[in-house]
Amino acid sequence: xxxxxxxxxxxxxxxxxxxxxxxxxFRRERREAWIPVFKHWxxxxxxxxxxxxxxxxxxxxxSNLSMLGAAIIRAEHIAIHEYSxxxxxxxxxxxxxxxIWISVGEASYLLxxxxxxNSIQSNAGLSILNKxxxxxxxxxxxxxxxxxxxxxxxFATAHTTRSRKIQEDVTKWRNADRSSITxxxxxxxIVDYYPRRKLATITSGAARPRxxxxxxxxMAFDRVT
Length: 225
What we know:
It contains five helices and nine strands, in the order ββαααβββαβαβββ. With about 220 residues, it is an alpha+beta fold. The protein has one domain (about 5-200, about 210-225). The chain is globular, with a radius of gyration of 17 Å.
């Protein structure tokens, strides 16, 4: 099992960490190439929030991918949505589409994306997050492209119903033992963004209001073809 290690702390609200079973493959320059991407990502999602009073992580994986793709382009890398790929099928190979193809630094990535609502009040949220990572990787496993990092990306929208313990729940979630995530893939990145600003509340008919303090993004690369 790989160990989750810090990659960058970009203030109190944004942290990046990673794991790798082979640091020659997911080497330092490949990891660090993502740091400016997520600096730009924070600028973009904050700008969106300022002009709309909305959050991109309240929407679908496509909405979240669009923000990440914009940050990748702003950082002078490449991102193409609905990228055409070869897929392994029961009858051989067929053309299909990956949710996104990314070139960051000197590495490229083919990813399937998922978005989920993730309770941070208990460890159950981590278990469900791991299942979603597994689903994304399972879909990506049918790609038959060469020379790519292949895997999944999950946008986990954090929520809690404990209005007086929001920061406590956030701290526990960010400091929780996440080692089980490393069982899902050989390499990966974890991005935690929990801005200290007005917290959003959505009731949606629920008995208790939910508070949405931020998001966790997990990128997991199951194999390198």
